[in-house]
Amino acid sequence: MDLEHLRDQLSAIDRQILELVAERQRLSGDIGALKRATGQPTRDFGREKQVLDRARALAGSLGVSPTLAEALLSLLIRSSLANQEQARVRAEGQGSGKPALVIGGSGKMGRWFTEFLQSQGFNVTVADPAGPVPGFRHVADWRDTTDEFAVTVVSAPIPLTGHILRDLGARQRRGLIFDIGSLKTPFIPELKALCSRGLHVTSVHPMFGPDTELLSGRHVLFLDVGCPEATSEAAQLFASTMAAQIRMQIEEHDRLIAYVLGLSHALNIAFFTALAESGETVPKLAHISSTTFDAQLQIAGRVAEDNPYLYFAIQAENPFGLAVLDELRKAVTRIADVVRTGDEAGFVRLMEQGRSYLASRR
């Protein structure tokens, strides 16, 4: 038996695996439809545990790594859930052909909302000078549109969002209006002014990126600016998803985001900046890397590929941002001090403090 023959056998098995995956996806779709018809939730954690436990046990009896089996089944479950969630959004969507406008819809998150609203049955118009999104009506300037939209999403750079909100208010636009900015302080006055003038306005922050397909385990923040009915209507757009809906005061948003986004971004920027200026090459470091280094390198790589102008705005436009960066600088200085002075007990205290703090999340 030669090598090519063995490879042909592997290719045939690969095809069988993919055919079985397709069959599994079809059955998963049928299950999702039945869940919707009977009012059951999309996700069943108990059932998932049964599937994974059974996969591990079966893998062991077949001489296959249980870890591999669990990873494979977890991936298939996640794919099935994403398909079921998207089908539920389409089936239970709020659109019914109503018009929606996404200002900045050619950007990454703007495009996500464009497709999300379309999946709910909205007739979506993209307003963006950067150009059209294939398959959607497009205008370069939203001010050239008529006042016809049931939903208007402002997905613009942070420095421009306040200007757009003011213009929306000046034109007394009807329908639900909300921004999806990563910061809120720069335009809280504009949001509240619109509300006081009787516009149906709120603020939303999706805590996920534009490549997200499954919203299970993801958070969407809803920030009331004085118009609770608008906040409830915005939340209703996500009612058919598995996203965790978090309501909070808009005034506390940026203080918390300074840690959730600002600190995590800064850590990764500092990490790849130190590496880039070290003179060592990534391939050389990766060749001898540890599990921790690999994980950190992967996260840092995603940060490095993202929009630097957005990341700068998240740091510079947040009034709480510098205080958090100062805390990071002090923490790094403390670590350097205990190492420089050989203070093992101090180093252990830092580790134990962190262990105790992080244990509280469980």
What does it look like?
With 362 residues, the protein is an alpha/beta fold. The chain has 3 domains: 3-91, Chorismate Mutase Domain, subunit A (Up-down Bundle); 93-253, NAD(P)-binding Rossmann-like Domain (Rossmann fold), CATH 3.40.50; 255-359, 6-phosphogluconate dehydrogenase C-terminal fold. Helices cover 60% and strands 11% of the residues. It has 13 helices and 8 strands. The protein has an 8-stranded mixed β-sheet with strand order 3-2-1-4-5-6-7-8, with helices on both faces. The longest helix has 36 residues, at 3-38. It is globular, with a radius of gyration of 25 Å. The mean pLDDT is 94.
Strand tally is 8
The mean pLDDT is 94
**Looking at this structure, what is the CATH superfamily of the largest domain?**
NAD(P)-binding Rossmann-like Domain
Which range does the strand content fall in?
A: 5-15%
Annotated CATH topology of the largest domain: Rossmann fold
Q: What are the segments in which pLDDT stays under 50 over at least 5 consecutive residues? A: none
* Form type: globular
Query: How many whole angstroms does the radius of gyration measure?
Result: 25 Å
What structural category characterises the helix and strand content? alpha/beta
The tally of domains stands at 3
Q: How would you sum up the major sheet? A: 8 strands, mixed
Write the H/E string, N to C.
HHHEHEEEHEHEEHEHHHHHH
Number of helices: 13
**What CATH architecture of the largest domain do you see?**
3-Layer(aba) Sandwich
Helix content: 55-70%
Please report the first level of CATH classification, the CATH class of the largest domain: Alpha Beta
The end-to-end distance, rounded to whole angstroms, is 54 Å
